[in-house]
Design goal:
heterodimer; A: Aconitase, domain 3; 3 domains; five-stranded parallel β-sheet; about 40% helix; about 10% strand; B: alpha/beta; two-stranded parallel ribbon; 4 helices; 12 strands
Chain lengths: ~425, ~140
């Protein structure tokens, strides 16, 4: 592939993989047939590049997905590839303040990458809409919240790939055999003794936010979980731990597939460190994640980071049904478009719109930099979004439970507190 | 003038020099920097508001989003990338980020660069030879 026999794009892809593999100190590449990547040109910065570059989407892919200033023609993908988030929801362009030109660029990208075989799931949660790796499957995924879910909950094997390495993997079906592809790097390093009950998604987000900040890029092992968490709770845990830190893999004893016992989770070794998560630690995490919240007048309630599951939409609908979103407040909920179709069918979308909210797809406020005009204070039920939104958009953010957030949407005021 | 020399492993080849910007905190790419200016934006980061543009960035490693490389890639195109990167902890985020930044980068040092280098020191990086030469700011003033 490096000799150009498979065309210039594959040659550039192989060149990038070798430079990247050398940087890592990887000994070889491994075959993969499961790539998750953002390649569209609708994200901030890249949309500006696309607008002024005469080479079109071939140029965008060459530069941003292959690290090649030379524009090469992009062939059909070799590996099964799912598209992650986009920069906009084309069906809510007006609410999001998105220009017609940007919607056009979205449509152009949809056609371009569709023709090349990309599965346009357009979500940060491919595992919620059919891309569910099997234990041991070698993947090349981007999106830190999806990477940690793939490794930890599903037992798939991936590192946190970036736009360029995932782009190269799409065209070659290869990725460096390094990090979480190898058994020895998947074992636990830190033992977390949980001494409080961890219940809803907000609780799991707090736990993840606390643990991530302490273990950074290591592998925490959760011990002492009471009730078995569902998909949404583990999704929120992982998203938080990969935001305050760089966690790409964790174990939950008795829950996740490589942690039947403590011994299995640590591969027979002793933990480097044992930490406790009790009432004080939970309170500290809550204070840290709420460090930007000041004004209790809430302009905007954002749910769906990571993209909501159908179960979470149902839960939000139960809290919202028959009520009305406050005149000074907006409620936007984000989900994959495949799930929105089910929500439409179930009547959930109607409950949300009847209350004055919107069910949106494809993007989120932090990723697409899309918010209701004039937003100064946001409320979220995601520790990840509370971590990033103030940094990216310069707003204040309140973090609480889904119920706290729906309450804020209805009253226009933040009244959440740790209970 | 006395120089301190560190030896490390090449991540990305090349030579560069500049003033050091040192942090003991890991850096987020996406949502952690403004790639147009090279400024750290993470809310609780000790370097918040400071730019690494043209500096030799000395830090423990990367954290956060998989958009790490993409943000440093944009920073390079915007002319806001660091001159060189020196770090301790290898991850895919930082490896790919260093590769697409096209700036000399080293890791696996014989001494901890976070202990030896201070912000403001003048640092010369020869990544091909695996050598970092540090001229202390304090010594330079004497």
């Amino acid at each position: 592939m490096l000799d150009g026999a498979h065309g210039p794009a594959v040659q550039k892809a192989m060149d990038l993989l070798l430079r990247y593999g050398e940087a890592l100190g990887a000994e070889k590449l491994v075959d993969t047939n499961n790539v998750c990547a953002t390649v569209g040109a609708t994200t901030p910065f890249i949309r500006d590049y696309a607008a002024r570059h005469p080479g079109g989407l071939d140029a965008v892919f060459s530069e941003f997905s292959l690290d090649s200033a030379e524009v090469v023609k992009i062939p059909k993908v070799k590996a099964y590839t799912s598209h992650l988030q986009q920069g906009i929801d084309p069906n809510h362009a007006e609410q999001q303040g998105v220009t017609p030109e940007l919607v056009q660029l979205y449509r152009k990208g949809e056609a371009f990458f569709g023709e090349r075989g990309v599965n346009l799931l357009n979500t940060c949660t491919p595992y919620q809409v059919g891309n569910v790796p099997v234990k041991g499957e070698h993947c090349a995924w981007m999106e830190s919240s999806a990477v940690i879910y793939c490794n930890s909950v599903l037992g798939g094997r991936t590192n946190a790939e970036g736009r360029e390495s995932a782009g190269a993997a799409m065209l070659t079906g290869k990725i460096p055999y390094w990090g979480y592809h190898l058994d020895e790097n998947r074992r636990g390093t830190h033992l977390i003794e949980i001494e409080v009950e961890v219940k809803d998604t907000a609780d799991w987000g707090l736990l993840g936010y606390y643990v991530g900040e302490i273990v950074q890029e290591r592998v925490p092992v959760l011990h002492g979980i009471g009730q078995v968490p569902n998909l949404a709770r583990l999704k929120h845990f992982g998203a938080a731990a990969s935001s305050s830190g760089g966690v790409e893999m964790y174990h939950a004893i008795g829950v996740t597939p490589e942690a039947g016992t403590l011994q299995e989770a640590f591969g027979g070794s002793e933990p480097l460190e044992t930490l406790k998560y009790g009432v004080a630690e939970r309170k500290l995490a809550y204070e840290r994640v709420n460090s930007t919240g000041r004004d209790t007048h809430v302009d905007y309630v954002m749910l769906g980071c990571p993209h909501y599951s159908i179960e979470q939409i149902w839960e939000a609908c139960q809290l919202l049904e028959g009520q009305r979103v406050h005149a000074n407040t907006s409620l936007w909920i984000f989900t994959p478009s495949a799930i929105k179709q089910v929500a439409d069918r179930n009547g959930y979308t109607r409950i949300i719109t009847d209350a004055g909210g919107h069910l949106m797809t494809d993007t989120c406020s932090a990723f697409g930099r899309v918010m209701p005009k004039g937003t100064k204070v946001a409320a979220v039920d995601s520790a990840k979004q509370a971590h990033y939104l103030p940094a990216i958009m310069g707003v204040e953010a309140w973090f609480g439970t889904t119920a706290d957030c729906i309450q804020a949407a209805i009253s226009g005021r933040w009244s959440g507190r740790l209970v | 003038m006395k120089k301190i020399v560190l030896r490390g492993r090449k991540v990305v080849g090349g030579c560069a020099e500049g003033e050091a910007l040192v942090t003991t905190q890991r850096i987020s790419g996406w949502g952690g920097i403004d790639p147009r200016t090279g400024t750290i934006i993470e809310t609780r980061h000790e370097l918040r508001g400071q730019s690494f543009k043209g500096k030799v960035l000395v830090f423990p490693g990367a954290k956060g989003s998989s958009g790490w490389s993409s943000q440093f890639h944009v920073a390079r195109l915007a002319g806001a990338a660091p001159a060189a990167m020196l770090f301790n902890e290898m991850t895919t985020k930082i490896a790919l980020g260093a590769v697409v930044t096209h700036a000399p980068a080293l890791t696996d040092f014989d001494q901890d660069p976070l202990q030896v280098i201070a912000t403001g020191d003048w640092v010369r990086v020869d990544a091909d030879q695996g050598i970092v030469e540090i001229t202390k700011k304090k010594a330079a003033l004497e």
